[in-house]
Amino acid sequence: CFDSESFRYLVARQNKIRFDNNEKEEYEMSWKTSASESKRLIEYIRKDITVYRIDNNLQSLKHAQFTILGMVRPILETIRNSLRNLILCSKDSVNARLELDPKVISHPSTNCMLCVPYACLVGQFWVAKTIPHEIQNNHCICECSPDQHTPIHYMLNHKVVKNSSKTDRDSVNHLLVRLCRACVQFSHFLRHSTDLSSHDPFFVGLIQLITEETHLCNNYKPNDLNTKLVADLRMQQKEYDKHSDEMERKGTQKSLADIYDLINTVREYPMMREQLVAINEGQRKLMKLYECEVSRTPRKYVDISGDSS
Fold this sequence. Notes:
Elements: H1 4-14, H2 21-47, E1 52-54, E2 57-59, H3 61-89, E3 96-104, E4 109-112, E5 118-122, E6 125-129, E7 133-136, E8 139-140, E9 149-151, E10 154-162, H4 169-193, H5 201-219, H6 224-250, H7 256-267, H8 272-296
């Protein structure tokens, strides 16, 4: 806000440097402009910037955007695994379910969209195992194009667990509906609060899941359950598209406080909490790793004192 000329004038006056009338007038105008702009900035911050403080946590657009982007993969994996369990529930001969088993990644890694994941059979489902590509010296070990890589914050394993009671289909279906609606609302918020208007991370993620499952169906047998999973994922995509178009047509905008309420609600859904815990733990380990690297970096000091002795 402040023109550097204004500060120079003040410093010069303190050092008893004299100016003619024209210079004084020029500096005075510069100071008035700087003061006026500073007042305008303060008024803008005070009146126009919306900041919510709830439960002693500062809430902001940027923080909400960052949080939502970090929830894309956990939400979509929760949807996929819920669909798996619904399929298992429909088979009377199966008394088991699949659980997500996230594992912390303690080094910077990416997921390559071009590298084909390997598959393993978990119960009766073929599951694609993402291969994290480690980043070393700011370079990814994968040779594919950099724009085909996305950060990956945790490994995801799966395990078969015997059902102690019959899976409640209604509750799982209700969870899927809520997650789909949450994806739509989060995407709408990102689209209208960022420059991501042409990029929908939830839609892209759904397509990626369908692509993975289709690859498994085409390359591994038996594939009847995975084939059903592909069909169910396509139905989820159609539901997502329908609700997304409906929300755009209505033009409804949720407040930032409402978005935070939705974030906190989704965090507590089954299978979500464990994945988010793994992400947070991985981020803490990365912070410690970076701190250690910085502490080991030799520092070079340049003498700027001018003392040659």
